[in-house]
Amino acid sequence: MAHPQLPLFEPSDDPPAAAPRAPLASSRTPASAATPVVSTPASATPAVATPASATPPVSASASATPPAVAPKPARTQRPPVDPETLLADLNEPQRESVMHSEGPLLVLAGAGSGKTRALVRKIAWLIGVERMAPWQILAVTFTNKAAAEMRERAGHMLGQETVENGLWLGTFHAIGVRLLRMHGHHLGIPRSFVIHDADDSETMVKRVLKRLNIDEKSFPARSVRSYIDKQKQVCRGPDAPDLPTGTLVERRHAQIYAAYEAEMKQAGAVDFSDLIWLPYRLASEVPQVGDELRLRFRYILVDEFQDTNRAQFLLLKALLGPERNVCAVGDDDQSIYRWRGAEVENILEFDREFPGATVIRFEQNYRSTRPILDVSGALIAKNRGRHGKTLFTARDGGEKVRLFAAESESEEADYVVRRIAALRGKHPLREFAIIYRTNAQSRSFEDRLRAYAIPYKVFGGLRFYDRAEIKDVLAYLRLLQSPSDPIALDRILNRPNRGIGATTVARIEARSQASNETLWAALCAEAVDTTSSAAPKLRAFVDLIIELQALLAHETALGVARAVLAKTGYLAWLQKDGSVEGETRAENVRELLAALGEFSDQRADNSLAAWLDEVALVSNLDEKQGDDAVVLLTAHMAKGLEFDVVFVTGMEEDLMPHFNSRDDHASIEEERRLVYVAMTRARHHLHLSHASSRRRFGQTRPALPSRFLDGLPGEHLLDENPRPARRPRTELPAARPGLAWSSPRTATPKADPYADPVPDWENESQDAADKRNHRVLGTASPTTAASGWARGMRCFHPQFGEGIVTTVEGAGERAKVTVSFWDGIARKLIAKALSEP
DNA sequence: AGCGTAACGATTTTT
DNA sequence: TCGTTACGCT
Description:
Elements: H1 83-87, H2 92-99, E1 105-109, H3 115-128, E2 137-141, H4 144-158, H5 160-165, E3 168-171, H6 172-183, E4 194-196, H7 198-211, H8 221-233, H9 248-267, E5 269-271, H10 274-285, H11 287-296, E6 299-302, H12 310-319, E7 326-330, H13 345-348, H14 350-353, E8 358-362, H15 370-380, E9 401-406, H16 409-423, E10 432-436, H17 442-451, E11 456-458, H18 468-481, H19 486-492, H20 502-515, H21 519-527, H22 535-549, H23 557-568, H24 570-575, H25 580-602, H26 608-617, E12 630-634, H27 635-638, E13 643-648, H28 665-679, E14 682-691, E15 693-696, E16 699-702, E17 717-719, H29 762-776, E18 794-797, E19 801-809, E20 816-821, E21 826-830
Parallel strand pairs: 1-7, 1-8, 2-3, 2-6, 4-5, 6-7, 9-14, 9-17, 10-12, 10-13, 11-12, 13-14
Antiparallel strand pairs: 15-16, 18-19, 19-20, 20-21
The protein binds a DNA duplex through residues 142-144, 171-174, 197-198, 272-273, 275-276, 336-337, 339-340, 437-440, 460, 497, 499, 501-502, 617, 619-621, 634-637, 658-661, 674, 695-699.
C-alpha cells in the first residue's frame, strides 16, 4: 500500500494563517500551494531507528485485540517529518500547542480557530518528530464524525496504515468498548457483551420494575433510567457509599438500580454510560490493567473537552501516566451538554486538577466574517463564568447579519427558503444550514423546501438504526452473539409470528425469575418441558437460534444476516400484506444488508461483533451524506460543523432559550452558548429569525422575540423588516378584555424586502402565501360575508373564533384580511373564511 | 391472536 | 398534532 506519492496537504483544512481567504471566495478550493508536510515519499522511507519504546508492552490481552495492538515495528510507516513544514502554516499559538509535548496542556480554542488542524498536526508531531509509536497515542473526539475526519486528515500525513492500525482515535464511548472487549473479563463482563442503547436501557428498567412489582406510574421507566444514568456519569455504583438514600424515593431508586445492575450482568449487557464507567473501574481498580494502560499511552489528546462529564474526566485521569502528557482542547463558550452530565468545570478548573498546566489560547478565527464574529461575540460576552476570550479575524468586510421577524413559522420558513433560492447560485446547497432548537421545528422548513423543489436533508428525528425493522434484525444478530440478553430475545421471540403469545412469554418469565436464570435458559427449559403446550413451538425457535448461531464461527456478518432473514422469513413477513409501508420496511432491511456488505469489504475486522459495536454507537450525523442538499439540524448537532450560509431560526422566548431552562440562570447561560454555537457555524452569511406566533402542543400561540436578540451590535445587523412601523396597541380595541395584544405587523409588503439579490420571486411568493392560507383554512365553512370587511369590525372564524379586523387588502373574494383574534394572535386570512360573530 | 379504533399523553438537546 | 398504547372487537 505504499503510495507513490502521499497527498501533500490536508484537503479540507483551513487556509494558512498568513493568507486569509477573501470573504466570498469559494472555500471549496483549498490553497493549491499548500505547504508539503511530508518531505519524503513513503516508499523511500529509510530504516528509521526504532525507539526502544516502539514495542508494545507485553500483555496477555494484547493479542486478544485483533488488529488494534499488533503494530509492525519494522514496517510501521512513519516517514521522517520535517518539523518546520509541520509548523509552517500555523499561527503562533497553534505552533506552540503542537510543539508542547510534555506535561499537561490546555488549549482554549475559540470557534473556528483551527483546533482540529492543530490537533492533527500535533498527532503528526508526536509520531513524526517526537518519535512516539501510533499505538502510544490516544486521541478522543466527541463524535464519530469528528473521529473519522481526524483519521482521514492524519492519514494523509502519516499514511493510512499507521492511522488505521495503530492510533487509538475515537469517541470516549468507542474507546470504552475497545477497552472493555480487551479487559472486561476482569469485571465479570463477558467478551461477547452486547451494548444497550437508551431504548434498550429503558426496556430493561421496565423489566426490573415488573420484577420488583413497582408501579410504573410512580416510577416511570424513563426517569428511573435517567437516574441510573446520572449515577453512572459520576461513577457511582449501586453500592456506592455516597449514593443518596435519605428519602424513600431515593432508597427505592437505589433498590431499582441494584436490581438493574444485577439484571444487566446476567444479560451480559452494558449500557451507554457503562462504556465510560466500567473502563474507568478497570483502569483504577484492576492494577494489572491500569498499569499496562498507563504505561502504554504516552500521550492523550481530548477534543471538545468542555463537554466531558465526570466519568470521562476520571477515566482520562486514570489512563494518564505519571508524566501527565495530556492535551485538552475545548471552548468553555461551547459547552452545551450540561443536561447530559457535562461539567464545564473540567475545563474551567483544568489547572487546578493539573498544577503547572500550560494554557494556550486560540483567538484568531479563520471561519467567519467580522459581522458574524462580532454579533456572536456580543452575545456570548453576556455570560459570566467563562474563561473569556475575544476572537478576532484578519479579514474585514462581509455581509451583515440579517434579522427577520416573521408573523408565523410558515412565514419564517418562507423567508429562509427564499433566501436560499436567492443565494443558491453562489454556494452549493450543502453549504446551507437551517438550525433550530428542537427537531419538531424542521417541519415547516421541509414543507417550504419541498414546495420550492430544493433538495434537503434532515438530521435528527428517527435514526436509520432506530427503525423497528432494523432493530428487529439487529436483535436477531445480537441474540446470536449473546442469547442471554433478554431485551433482544423478547423483541424477536414472536416476530415473525410463531404462535408464541403473551401467555407463553409470561410463563417463561416466571420460570426465569423463579430459578434465577436467564430468559433464554428458561425458554430452553420450557421447550423441553413436556407439560407445556407451547413446547413444540419453543423448541422450533430454539433450534432455529442454535442453527443460526453455528454460522457465527465461519460466516461473515453479512452471511449471518442473510441466513437470519432466510430462515426466519422475516422479509416475507414484512411484505405479507403487500402494503407500501411493508415494502418500505423491507427496503430498509435490504439497505441494512448493503451496509453490512460494505462493512465486511472495508474492515479488517469484519466480524459480526465488530459491526454490532459500531452500529451501537452511530448517531444520525454519521449516516451517509453525499447528496448536495440543504442541511436541517438542531443546534446541538451543528457543533463542530461549518457552513457558508446559516439560518438560526426560532429565536423566541421559550424556544431559544427553551422553556425548560427559563428559571435557571445556569441553564439560560447554556442556552446562550447554544445560540453562540449555532451562530458561529456560519462562514459568510448568518440569518437570525423569529416568528410572532408558533404552533406548539398542536396549538398556535404567541411568541416573543428571544432575549438573545437584545443588545446585539446594530452596526452589524440588517433588519429585514423595515416595513411600516408597528401598530401602536392603542389603535385597536382589545377583542377581549384582559388578553394580551401581540402587536401584529400590518400590510403585506408590496415588494419583497429581503429579495435584494434576485428579486424575481415576488409573484410566486404571493401565490405561495395564498396557497398557504388556503391550506390553513382548509376547514373553513361557507360564508355569508364574502367581502366588505373593514378595519375594526368584529368577525368570526370557525377555527380561531372571534376577532377584530385590523387590515384589509384587495376586494371581493380574494381580499386578504388581517384579524386579531381573541387569543392575541394576528392571522392573515382570506376574507371569505370569515363570518359575522 | 391479531387487528382496528379510541383515548391518552407527551412533547429538548444525544454519545 | 402526532405517536403510542390499551382495550375491545372480530
